[in-house]
Each structure stands twice: as C-alpha cells, then as structure tokens.
Amino acid sequence: MFNTIALAVDGSEHSHKGVAVAAELARLSKGKVIVFHVREHDLTRGQMWELESAEDAQAVVKKALDEVRKAGADAEGDVIRTAHGTVAQALVDSAKDHKADTIVMGSRGLSDIAGMVLGSVTHKVIHLTNATVVVAR
To answer: 16, 105, 119, 137 - which has most CB atoms within 10 Å?
Structure first.
C-alpha cells in the first residue's frame, strides 16, 4: 500500500491539503506520487470550449509537484483532459492506468455549490474506485 499515490489537485485550498498528506505517505513508504489535475472542456453547438487554459492547468500541477518534491518524495505530474462533468471518472481511470494503489484528494474543491447539489468529485471517486481513497480535510 502507498507504493503509487495518485494526488488529485485543482488549485483550491481544499485540494492543497492533500499535497502534504500524499507527500508524507510517499516519503514514509518510499512510494511515488503522481499529481493529477483535470482540465475540463465543454462541447456546445459543435464548438469546443476550454474551461481552463493549458498554462493554468500546468501551473497547478507544477506547484503541487514542487511541494511534494520539497517534502522529499518522488513525484511526477499529468494534466488530464476530459469532458465537463466527468472529472471523477477521469481521475479513477488515470489512477488505474498508473497502477495507483491510493488516491489522495481534498474534501471539496472549487465547485462547492455544485458539489452539494450533484455530489462532490471526492464522493464519486470513492464510489468508482477499488483503490484506497484518503480524504484530506
């Protein structure tokens, strides 16, 4: 357990709490952290709309990578592109592709109101994965 840790970050304060948790788990277990950030897009009337720039997405990943490495853990990062509303499945699929045995994420990200109405991404990930999920609060 804790050999490969998928860390989901979205740039929010809540997801930032997961960075220290993932780094410490990896450091103690001599595991690796894979930092994931999901960059959503929407398709409306045949037009693709990016909800975040590639540069902003990379900056979120870089910030988390820097912090994990500074804490003494091995890390790599990846930006995942997915359709709006499919973040949880994209995270679970990417964690599985990287053979992550653990997923670390914050309790609530950028969309607090949507999370209350539709169910948070964290909640969906817990139900979609067989991996251990650590929720940082």
So the answer is: 105
